[in-house]
Amino acid sequence: MFENKENRTELSELGEFGLIDHLAKHIGLSHPSTLKGIGDDAAVIDQGNGQVTLVTTDMLTEGVHFDLGYVPLKHLGYKAISVNLSDICAMNGRPAQVVVGLGLSNRFSLEAVEELYAGMKLACERYNVDLVGGDTTTSRAGLVLSITAIGTAAKNKVAYRSGAQENDIIILSGDLGGAYMGLQLLEREKEVFKANPSAQPDLEGFDYILERQLKPEPRLDIVELLDSLGIIPTSMIDVSDGLASEILHICKQSGYGADLYIEKIPLDPMTISTADAFNLEPVTCGMSGGEDYELLFTIKASDFEKLQNNPLITPIGHITGKGERARLITPQKEAIEITAQGWKHF
Ligand code: ADP
Ligand code: MG
Description:
Layout: H1 11-25, E1 34-36, E2 43-46, E3 51-61, H2 73-89, E4 94-104, H3 110-126, E5 130-138, E6 144-154, E7 169-173, H4 178-195, H5 207-214, H6 220-229, E8 235-238, H7 243-254, E9 256-261, H8 269-277, H9 282-288, E10 295-299, H10 304-307, E11 313-322, E12 326-329, E13 335-337
Parallel strand pairs: 4-5, 9-12
Antiparallel strand pairs: 1-2, 2-3, 3-6, 4-6, 7-10, 7-11, 8-10, 9-11, 12-13
């Protein structure tokens, strides 16, 4: 239609981030109020009164982002809201409204859609967010959920991916790899069930990692903690694709390198034991697993004292020199270069 058949580039050659970079190159901005367009966790729009509006959208597609074989619709609704609110938090902002785009097939009943909305409503109530609209259409490719979240922040407190400076401390909220291990567990039980439909799923005692996968929480508490301590992060991103991918975004956009210490990366004991059972390296699950929705941010070294020993966060490294690489430092002080590991759905 629009393409010259002899000059066809496969999307898989670019990957998700390559495609976005390519498209962004040809998109200009003309409104002075557009402070940030493509390239961060949310767009930033100046309200002109010292406040900004933050806008972000995320689409979840059946068979790509979730499997209704093991994801209850109520959890899916909750998660769909959570992951969008997480992108508002990742700008150091507070979410206020969401709109919900819904693609449905006749496979879904009213009761099923009500379950989905019960989950969305729960997340909205929990984070004090209003559901203010959306759109409903027919989908021939399974359930599609497209959610847009709107939030606010003081203009001088917005944390971009691009603000990290040499010697800043790199901080992570919570722990990593749990959501990925929860997914491995659900996938395994699905295979067992396919082979033997009378088998009972063996998910008992794995609550933490299952919740990490099925019911992630946006870290609004961290935004509020930083505010109460008078700390403005120099850069921030949420961990949707794994720590490796996210630290590379901060390094690339800030123009600096980073050293992360392997033994500092926070992992829950259940993540470690489940990874061991699956013959996976626990740190790798945190580095490239994804979907943890924790906040990764940098602060000035002079702010560190205010956060020290806080159980909600862990310092995991520091920003290094201009143009340096992102590296993982082993306990033996060897340096391993971190490479791009974003999800490639194409
Ligand atoms: P996140 O993981 O934080 O949701 P993404 O990696 O999905 O961020 O997106 C990175 C940036 O690219 C964001 O600014 C997003 O708005 C933008 N983006 C993603 N897809 C498109 C698209 N199809 N057209 C324009 N901008 C896009
Ligand atoms: Mg994000």
